Structures are given as structure tokens and as C-alpha cells.
Amino acid sequence: xxxxxxxxxFSALMFFSFQAVVSDxxxxxxxxxxSEEIIRVRNTVQEKYPTSxxxxxxxYIGLDDPEKDIxxxxxxxxxxxxxxxxxxAIAIINSQTHEIVIDLQKENAIILSDNIHxxxxxPTLSVAEQxxxxxxxxxxxxxxxxxxxxxLNLSEVVCSAFTSGWFGEAQxxxxxxxxxxxxxxxxxxxxxxxxxxxxxxxxxxxxxxxxEDRGIIPVATANNTExxxxxxKPPFGPKQHSQATHQPDGPGFQIxxxxxxxxxxxxxxxxxxxxxxxxxxxxxxxxxxHKSRRVLYKGYISELFVPYQDPTDDFYYKTFFDAGEFGxxxxxxxxxxxxxxxxxxEFLDAYVHDASGTPVPIPxxxxxxxxxxxxMWRHTETGIPNDSFVETRTEVNLIVRTIVTVxxxxxxxxxxxxxxxxxxPAIALSGILEIKGVDIxxxxxxxxxxHGTLTSxxxxxxxxxxxxxxxxWTTETETAKSENDAKIIIxxxxxxxxxVNPNKKTAVGNDVGYRLIPAIPAHPLLTDDxxxxxxxxxxxxxVWVTPYNxxxxxxxxxxxxxxxxxxxxxxxxxxxxDIENKDIVLWHVTGIHHVPAQEDFPIMPLLSxxxxxRPTNFFDRNPVLKTLSPKFVKWPGCPNTTTH
Amino acid sequence: xxxxxxxxxFSALMFFSFQAVVSDxxxxxxxxxxSEEIIRVRNTVQEKYPTSxxxxxxxYIGLDDPEKDIxxxxxxxxxxxxxxxxxxAIAIINSQTHEIVIDLQKENAIILSDNIHxxxxxPTLSVAEQxxxxxxxxxxxxxxxxxxxxxLNLSEVVCSAFTSGWFGEAQxxxxxxxxxxxxxxxxxxxxxxxxxxxxxxxxxxxxxxxxEDRGIIPVATANNTExxxxxxKPPFGPKQHSQATHQPDGPGFQIxxxxxxxxxxxxxxxxxxxxxxxxxxxxxxxxxxHKSRRVLYKGYISELFVPYQDPTDDFYYKTFFDAGEFGxxxxxxxxxxxxxxxxxxEFLDAYVHDASGTPVPIPxxxxxxxxxxxxMWRHTETGIPNDSFVETRTEVNLIVRTIVTVxxxxxxxxxxxxxxxxxxPAIALSGILEIKGVDIxxxxxxxxxxHGTLTSxxxxxxxxxxxxxxxxWTTETETAKSENDAKIIIxxxxxxxxxVNPNKKTAVGNDVGYRLIPAIPAHPLLTDDxxxxxxxxxxxxxVWVTPYNxxxxxxxxxxxxxxxxxxxxxxxxxxxxDIENKDIVLWHVTGIHHVPAQEDFPIMPLLSxxxxxRPTNFFDRNPVLKTLSPKFVKWPGCPNTTTH
Lengths: 644, 644
What we know:
CATH architecture of the largest domain in chain A: Distorted Sandwich
Number of domains of chain A: 3
Number of helices of chain A: 7
Radius of gyration of chain A: 26 Å
CATH superfamily of the largest domain in chain A: Copper amine oxidase, catalytic domain
CATH topology of the largest domain in chain A: Beta-galactosidase, Chain A, domain 5
Largest interface: A-B, 155 and 155 residues
Oligomer: homodimer
Distance between the termini of chain A: 52 Å
Structural class of chain A: mainly beta
Helix content of chain A: under 10%
Mean pLDDT of chain A: 85
């Protein structure tokens, strides 16, 4: 088993102002492209580049989001503000990457710009080219020989494409590593790789350009790898008793198209082929100021960096950028009602696209539900003689959930909203480990460091040339006026990070703000001169702050497949721009060191991390002071009592 | 507002062995003392020290828990193992602290030992002596003058007792500081102190031994300090919709006396006047080994250290050890059904005692309930051509909850059990801030550091003698063979801590163990030569490991009021005892830096921290692989569908 570290970058653009937020018009300017709009993009591009004479594949078709000031103006005066409706298409046309912006407002969509990307890095992979690449070994002579030599059944071989990273080459072709697995006896392919093979496919040539068989390593047994219920034998257990949730007044939230109202919150649920779920324009109603106040302009997962911790040939290259290379939207899976989300959930569908530009529906891509959330606040007063009392309020939270499955791992992404003003994004990991084939039946046979279940994650600097990896450590700095000041590792030392608006004060003069209560820091394990770490340099710190720039969306760069780390958060901030009293973006890096254990086999129980954006002198006082506990209801037929 | 830091020490004695756990006999040897047993302790002590001729007050009456090996033997063979039943009473008799052990097995209780404590430090305060001390100022001339001078109404003054700490004195009397508050117009006394006064009461003399009026500082206004629902005016909001929970098959847990069975878990709920809730003998059923396996011998909050961060006369002394000075059990409050715990909760009562040794009931001291707990594990398989599928399991968790209110703060303590083997203790903070009176209406009036809403918690070393405080910083070390090796700050650097039994291996040879996934470290803010930090030295690291010793229960010492830090975890571990391959105790320190914000006024929304004890090669594979999702049930009358 190779251990992995998942580092997730949340980007949250936060700002505070006091304009009224009005209800949504039917067409919200941040709504994702409709099926019809995706088709118009495809047709428009194909009109310019007919497929009869061009090799054309789409790697991104999404909303080209309008300028922020226009969105904010629209939010204030939706009836009198015209917002442009544009799409961005990223297509590979005759092996060149095109960025095409299309105006969707007119009946006939118009190409506004068409630029060729000439730098390093390639767009998100399409599903079709992954399918084509993974079919190649099955008809490739040397691979068939390797399979035979191992005594394996070719008809049970299943292959998968893996981005191959960057390790210092001056230039790259658009290649992927293909790894193959055994599908016989169990569908748990991920734990049964055919190890010892290097298969490199050039996606433009769509041919195997490098093949190596480094020798036979036995494929793991299929025993105990099955996890489907239909293939399990009794006894089942432990038994879990059912819980039914009933909301006699119905749910407390309303979804109108993509706009959500719940309790004192309003926000927009967007969906992007690359980012997946996007939360925008979150504002909270201030009971004392009698108006909605903006909290979050836009929040989403900007990148997910998954560097496996194993320097050997089978694994060293596995330094994935799941959002940029595979697409969090493209990899979003349908939620299973009553299981992935509770029975009181409502669901939203989404559309992504395939390589031909055809819309692909994802039914139940997002769910929204309310959940009992413990105690909101309480106090038992015993300090006043003869006048003891207790005041306690029960809390209901709102959760927005989506699940992204990239290969073996399932990422459960929850955005939790609290009436007290907090937003708590969480990411939890489940799914299956990727297993490395080693010829070892018992741990006693392990002689040197086999990159197995390590309980210490100490940095190891590789000096003997046995790997392309190097290593990592970092120290802490403090907050303030410029981008460099804001590069910090919060949580390592006493300190709190608040994002404040020095132009807005509370009644008693505190700066209006929100505080980041971070997830426990997940320290990178690579040296900062290691190639994967150059590409994933956003993990050098867990907090970054930049001045808002509409084009700085992807912490690992727009073109992250084979990127050289030239377009990253770490590079942008080298300008050390002024952030004081600016419209800023807060980037928070959170992560999970997944050191595998036997409990993760054959499928792993959830491992979670979360952080909190908590109002801190944003309100003049406790914003839920006057919130009643939900009325207590009993099952019908039982006496109904009401308490507050 | 003075900022506080709450550092909680959880002590978890973990061990792994493979004996069968049998069901409980009616009288579990770890059951708390019954009301009748408390009375027998009182009568037995009073027989030796008649109150007619002795000043006698009880400061602790609790179970003197049996030796661990006897408990384990009883657990294996309850019908043939005789377990002693003994009580420990700590009483102050004629100003001397007695530790009296009483045998409760015989009809006539017998005093087994009676030792006088002659070192530094005093027992937990009794409620009665706090009441007596806080009544003193109201009839004390100089105090009445101070109240008059301030134009305040004496009949609205309410006082409270605060332990006064230790600041280097060679010897201490048993004194408390008394602070008084205004109760007129609002019961939120904590935000309305009468500042500028020093009132020191000697508890043995029960008289004011020091009084100082340092000058008038206005008492804060009562405006907006009210939080009782009955005194709030409309509009209320935001509105929360009700949720009813129905369990058609009833709850999934059973409580027999103090023993809980739920899904694959069994454990015992104890209750101690000092520790409050105690979880013991937690074992989990292994579906593959067909037996219960021990996980946790005993888990409880050993101490809670609350050093306020304000070096001035009104606040410097506030360095509370809430468990040892006020008693977590004595300060446990009754839970409000349907509000503090959901409607599907079951409740346990508890008994503590008063200073005269009379039992005091705490109805609904602990609640136990099941809660929908997100996804247990899942995977959507898209890598196998033409054979996509999804497997997902919904999770139900068990929560054991208790709430401890010490003065202004309410501590909500949850122990969460997961069928996947994790135990997740959490502590959340609510209640009311303690406010310092300052003559400031707006933040602009603040000239120097007023210890208000600081967003940076940088250590400040006090060198000008203006306070008795000094300061803090620490570095990191690594795990292993002796107590010194195990003093670490986990979370500051890449690393994972597993507690393993090297004598027990999984089938493939990994050491059987549990891993600590820590809460985000709460770094102490004091220097290690500062007196409060000497007493609270257990916060120097967030992980400590000691060899099991039945007497080492309280990380801050048995007698913590006025303690000099001579009987602490930091002192015990100076012996640097061997911990390798021993029966060990894991101590984890977690904390909440509470930097107050206006949202915390007049009562603060919950602020939480939690950690996870997660099986790591404890099981041979995922222990919930064959757990079904709870059957889906709909509200009666709706079509009932079943899914797994």
C-alpha cells in the first residue's frame, strides 16, 4: 500500500458590504450552462472548425463568469442590470489548445476570442481519450505477452489512465501512464494491479510510445476484496436501527432554480465541469440591521493535490491534481437518495459535456438537506441565589453535499451553513486504496522501507538517485499588508486569522470580519525543490491571501496536466501585491494524510477534515440570540407537546 | 473582555487484549456510589469525627476504584470474581485534609485508612463554603461603602467565589477571591462585574482577610445583556423548521443500570463528583473473530485549565482548574429533554454530595442517543467498462452527552462512538463571557493593549513587573520507549501517533493498534516558568504517555486549589519511566482559544473541538464492510420502501 496525502485547496472570496440582496430573477447570471447552451457552444466551435477537416475535442465548456462588479450590480438591481452571458470553451484542435470565448446572448452564438495556449501544461483530460488510451494495451503485443507470462487472463484485464506529472523535462508531450488491473473474481480492481509494467500513451498520437516490463510481481489475490452487498455472505452486522426524519412544516429551505433560501441565509449553487460545486453570493440576514449582508462571493475547491508517497517506478509519478487533470465536475457522481443524503434531502441535477461537446447529464449531482445540529447556545445560571434557570437553544444546520469520485477515491464534499453565521466546508475521503503489488505475504518479510503502513511521516531526503523525488519542511510567518505577509501556516502556533473590512466597523468600533478556524494543518512531505512540490506549491502554506483577480482561479494553474508550476498561486504571489484594504481572496489549504491501515481494506471508512469561517465582530451581537429552538414534534398519534 | 484559553486534558487508558466480554451483572463494580452508599460514608466518617466536637466538611465522596487487574478478571468471570467495594472520602476536619478510604462491603462500613495530606494544595471547594464566602461582602462595611460610592443598589449585588491560584508564595492559606456583580435589570451577571475591588476570603476562618478598593470603574450597562426567551421582544428569528425523529424499531442501544450495549459496542457509564462522566471498559465486537475486543479501559476529562489572558489586578489570578477546583461532577447540570438532547435520547441520573455528606441528585445528568452520521463508506466504480455500480452505506452514531457549567461557561461534552471502531470525544463551549469593567465606550478610546479582541495571540513576555505573569513557547520531539520520548505536540508537523500492542499482530503481521487523530493543537500562551504554567504544565505538550498507575488520575494534581505544581503529569513523567510494551495511559490535551467577539455577547454560540481514536490495524479489515445501512422508513401513511 502506498500512502497518500490529499491536499485540498478551498478558495473563498470573502467580502463585506451592506447592500440589500433582492430575490432572484429566473435566470441567475451565475447559473451553470444549460444543456442547450452547451450544444450552442459545440455548434459554434464546430462551425469554425468543422470536424470533417479538423481533429477537435472539448476539454472544458463552462460559464465564463461575468466581472464581479457587474454581478454585484445585478444583485442590487436585477431588473435594470444587463449581465453578459458568455461561455469559455477549451478545446484541443489539431493538437493545439484553444481558449475560445463565446457570446451566448445573441440568438446566434458568436466567438468573441480564440487564443492558442503556447506554454507548458495541458487541459483537463476528456473521458473519451482516457477510454481510448486504456483500450490500447489490450491489443498491444508486448503487453499481451506480459499478461501471458504472468499466467493472467487477458479478458479480465481492465486498464485505467493516470496523468504522469512532470519531473524536470524541458518540454512534454501529452502523455498518460496506463496501469492495468485484474477484474476477475472481484470488481475491486484497484487493489489488484498488474505491477512491474510501464505503459506510456501519447494522447495526440493515441499510441503506446513507451513500454517496459520490469519483471513479474504477483497480482494480489481477490480474496476478501469484494465489497458489494450482493456478494457478501451472512452474518451481516453490526445492525443499525432506522431513523425516520419528518418535517411537519416541510423543509426550512427553498430552492428556486439554483438559488437557495434557508433561515437567515441566501446563496447560489453553481456547477462547473472543473470545479464541480460552486457556492456563490452567500449573504445572511441581519435581524438587527434589517437587511441581508454579504459574506462570501464565491467558494469552491480550487485544486486537489494527491502525491503518493512511494518513490519507486510503479508509483513515483503519481502526483495527481484531481480537479485540474480529471475535473471535479466531470467526476461528480450521482447521489443515491436516502443513502448518500438523508430522506429529507432535495436534489439538483447538473450538466457537463463529453469530448464531442455533447451535454452529459448528472442526475442528483448535488443534494441539500437540513440536519439536527446539536446545541446552538445554552447557559445554566446557578450563580444567583434562589434564581437558577436554564436557557438552551437547539440548532438545525443546512448541508449542501456533492461527491466526486476520481478513480479509486471518493471525496464527499459538504458545505454546512449555520444560522449563527458560520460556514463550515468539509471534505471526507472514502473509496478504495490503490495497492502496489509486492511479493510479501507477511510484514516480517519486509527488510527495508517498503512504503507500507508507516506510522511516522518524517521527511526522507532521497540522495542516492533511486527516485526522482526529493523532500520538505517549512516554518511560520505572520499576517498583514502584502501577499508575502499572508503566507502562513495557521494552527502551528497560537494565532487566529480574521479577514476584516477596516472600512466597516461595528457599533462599538471593531473591524467587521470573519475568522478562519482552520483544519489541522496537513504538512507537505516533499522538499520545495521537488518537481511535484513546484507544481503543488500552493501546499507550502495553508493560508494565502491575494487581491481579487477574476483569472486567478486555479491554484495549480489553468493547464495542470504536465504543468511546470509556472501558473500557480505560489508564482502569482511572487509579485507580493498589496492586499491591505483590497477586495481579497482567501485561500485555505486543508489535507488528509492517508496512511493506510488494514481497516481501509477492501474499502475505507470515511476520514474527514473541516474548517470554519466564523463571524467575528461581523454582527454587533450574537445573531441567534432570538432564534427559537425548532418546535418539538412527536410521531403522529403521540401527544404533541411544544417547547422552545 | 478578557480572552481565555481552555485546555482540556482527556485521559484515555487504552489497551488491547482478546478476552471475551460477558454481559453485566446487576452491580457493576465501576458503578458510581449510590445515594445509600454516600450516606454510609457520611455516617461512618461522622461516627469517628462527631460534628458536635469537630469542624467537618466533605470535599469528595466517590468510588475508590478497584485495581485494574481485578476489574479485568471480574469482566471475564463476573460470577466467580469478588471485587472490593470501597469509597474514597476527602474531608477537611478541623482545617486538616483527610483522605479516608472506607470499605462498603460489610453491613457496617469500616474505615480502612485515614491519612492527613500535609503538602501544598487543597481539595475541591464545596458549594456550601462558596455560598458562605460570597455572602460575606454583603455585610462587610468597606464593601458596602464601595457599593454606595459607586451609586449601586446593594440589594442587587450578587457575588461569586473564584479560586485564587498560586503565584510563588512559599505557603498558602485556603483563600478564594470573591467578585461581585450587578443583578438588576438582567440576570446576565457575568458581564456586569463591580471592577476595581480585591476581596480575599479565608475559607477556614470564613472571613474577609484582604480588601482593597482600587477606584471606581463604571459597571457596564444592562442593555442588551438579557438572553432569556421570556424577556425577548419580537421579531424572533431566523425560524428553524422542526424535525421529528422516529425509530420504528426503537433505539439501537440498551442501557442496563450503567452498562450500555449498542451495535458492536459495549461500555460502562460512570460518574464521579470530580471527573463527571467516565467511560469505562469499552469493547467492540469483532465480526470475524467472533468475540468482543477491549479498546478503552477508562476515559474521562482529567482536568480543565482556564488561564485568562489579562495580567491586571482584576484578572491575573484567574487561572482556573475547573475539574479539580470546582468538580466536573459537582458542576454537572441537568439536561433539558428535547433541547439539550434530541427527542430520541435516554437519560441517566447521577448523585453527588454536599459538604455535609448528604447525597444530592442530578436528574438527567447524562443522555445517550443515536444520530444520523453521514456516510459510513462508499464507492462509485466507473473504471470497469460497461459495469458501473455504486455501493454506499449510511451511518448511525451513538452519542453520550453531559454538560458541565462552571460559573459563566457551559462545557458540552460528547463521546461519539462509531460502528467502524472510532471513538470521538468532543468538547464544545457556550455560555457567557466574563467581562472586565473598563471605562471605554468605543474601541477608538483604547490607547494601549487593553486585552480586548486581539486577533493575534503572540506571546508577550512581561518584564516590567506590572504583572505576576511571564509567558511561553515550545518545540517538538518524537515518540517511543520512555515517558520523555512520548512528550510531543502532535499536529505541528507531519506525523501520526498510534498506540500499538507489539505482542498482538494482525493476520498479516501489523501491530494491533489505535491511532490518535488529534484536535488542532491549542498552544499554551504562558512561559513555562510562569506559576500558572507550572501548575498547568500538562499543557506543555498535547500528548503524554505514562505507564498505568492507579493513583495518577489528575493531570494537575489531586489537590489543585493553590497547588504548587508538585503533583502533576509533568512531575510524574520526570522519572522518565519505561513505556514500551507496558500497560499505558495516553493523555491528550486539546483546547479552545477563546478570543471573544461581539457575536459571543450576551451569550456565545458553540465553539467546538474534537479528536478521534481510530482503529489502525486493530481489525484485519474494514469492520463495517458487512454493515447494512439502516432500513429506510417513511412517515406512516406514506408508501414504505426499503433500501440498503
